[in-house]
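Structure in, sequence out. Go:
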């Protein structure tokens, strides 16, 4: 396993991090514990979870004894409403202060190494969010704060306000990045490089498309992510000839290097020096371990360049995991289109939003 600085924090993290979104959805507590310990045995020292990943926080808390906990960096996120108030805003002080207590209790720990805003919250003034996060850092409950699914301008604005008010800046961002989804290279990734934010990559296999297991023109088999209604955005990929054409061109390159497609996809990400850590996900232990097996391997730079060229058109795919609002009076519910094809209602000045998948 290789390690790298986590932005400006002083932490050194493994370049493969453990993603836990499937815990309690695909992996029961025992299987999740096995996956956690296998990750640690392979040198992974960063575990990512979220309040919205089912029982994931609880499973992690149960699997880690105090000695093991001190060896890993724990990162979680606030997304759900944690108060009785049905109008609770996601990143409000009231919600964040309750949410962090819930996460600490679920994870059976006194502190979180990284606390992330899972999505931007257009309904809470950023000063309020930052002041709440500042309080958590001062109380020792949180060491660093980060975000995910933010545009570069949203982080730039947040951190400018933070610098102006003497409040904590966001040190990291999680984004969707893979050989099939390279839109972040347009501005989020250069922004992170310029300001030394840690880049945490999620969905490195585009949710499983980059395993090559989905066949062109065939419906996904029912045990796969693409068959789950909450991941309906994957269907667009399955129905796209361009996606299948790209995968077909990647296959022989992987074979020529004696790698499986998923290994090639992750090694391409690790070949990008600005990528801090790639969050690996899986529904079975082997999905994770097959990636640890190649964690020390490096692709030659001309292979990285070949893959860059082969997937150059994938920088033009739109973001799909967009900021969105809670419906008024429906804490925890997302504003979804009234009927397929009808855009969600948004106030003037707010870009129309694609309904995202639940809890990702
Ligand atoms: N911040 C955010 O908004 C956000 C969003 C998404 C994820 N994340 C984080 O990033 C982590 C990883 O994301 P991800 O799960 O989307 O990653 P991913 O690697 O793109 O997708 C993982 C899924 O692909 C399939 N898969 C993986 N390896 C396979 C193999 N060898 N053979 C066949 N199928 C395989 C499995 O799904 P099936 O077997 O079910 O098909 C698995 O659950 C998450 O756990 C979470 O921590 C964050």
């Amino acid at each position: 396993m290789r390690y790298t600085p986590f932005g400006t924090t002083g932490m050194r993290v493994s370049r493969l991090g453990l993603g836990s979104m499937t815990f309690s959805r695909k992996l029961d507590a025992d299987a999740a514990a096995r996956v956690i310990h296998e990750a640690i045995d392979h040198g992974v020292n960063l575990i990512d979870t979220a309040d919205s990943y089912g029982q994931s926080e609880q499973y992690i808390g149960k699997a880690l004894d105090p000695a093991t906990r001190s060896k890993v960096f724990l990162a979680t996120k606030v997304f759900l409403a944690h108060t009785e108030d049905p109008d609770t805003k996601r990143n409000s002080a009231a919600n964040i202060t309750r949410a962090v207590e819930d996460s600490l209790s679920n994870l059976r720990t006194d502190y979180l190494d990284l606390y992330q805003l899972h999505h931007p919250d257009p309904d809470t003034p950023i000063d309020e969010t930052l002041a709440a996060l500042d309080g958590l850092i001062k109380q020792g409950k949180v060491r660093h704060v980060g975000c995910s699914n933010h545009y570069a301008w949203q982080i730039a604005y947040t951190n400018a306000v933070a610098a102006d008010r003497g409040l904590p800046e966001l040190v990291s961002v999680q984004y969707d990045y893979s050989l099939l989804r390279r839109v972040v290279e347009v501005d989020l990734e250069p922004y992170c490089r310029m300001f030394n934010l840690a880049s945490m990559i999620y969905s490195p296999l585009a949710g499983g498309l980059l395993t090559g297991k989905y066949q062109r023109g065939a419906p996904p088999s029912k045990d796969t992510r693409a068959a789950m209604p909450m991941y309906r955005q994957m269907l667009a990929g399955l129905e796209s000839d361009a996606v299948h054409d790209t995968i077909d061109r990647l296959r022989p390159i992987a074979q020529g290097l004696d790698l499986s497609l998923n290994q090639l996809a992750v090694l391409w990400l690790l070949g990008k020096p600005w990528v801090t850590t790639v969050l690996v996900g899986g529904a079975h232990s082997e999905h994770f371990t097959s990636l640890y097996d190649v964690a020390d391997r490096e692709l030659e730079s001309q292979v990285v360049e070949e893959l860059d060229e082969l997937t150059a058109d994938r920088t033009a795919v739109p973001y799909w995991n967009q900021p969105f609002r809670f419906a008024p009076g429906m804490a925890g519910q997302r504003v979804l289109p009234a009927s397929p094809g009808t855009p969600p209602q948004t106030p003037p000045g707010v870009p129309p939003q694609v309904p995202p998948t639940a809890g990702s």
